[in-house]
Amino acid sequence: MDPKAGILHVEDDRSLQKLVRAALEQLGGYTVRTATSGSEALALAAEAAPRLLLLDLDLPGMSGIATLRALRELPGLAEVPAVFLTAARDPAMLAELGALGVREVVHKPFRPRLLVQAVDRVLAGESR
To answer: The whole model's pTM is what?
Structure first.
């Protein structure tokens, strides 16, 4: 598999979708598919397994955490690394993400280059 392929970004804010896609594709050389909801993410992941999951916490219909749990149930996705891009800083929420095996949490607002560096670290197995 191409080491720069396959990020599934789950985010309902269109302007943030564009910013993240530009950062990851132009600065990082990654291929990004975007879903606006948990159900759309499940459909995209079932078509082609992503190499990394990048999720927002607050999604319409199904939260980012519920989406991650559902994605983990799909064949081949139990071990796909996950990163959350969120404004949330609640320690209990961050602890829950850690318990779910989330490798990194990038806080909004974010610098595009720092997002790419976080994704690079996770895919290289160097996450915190």
So the answer is: 0.92
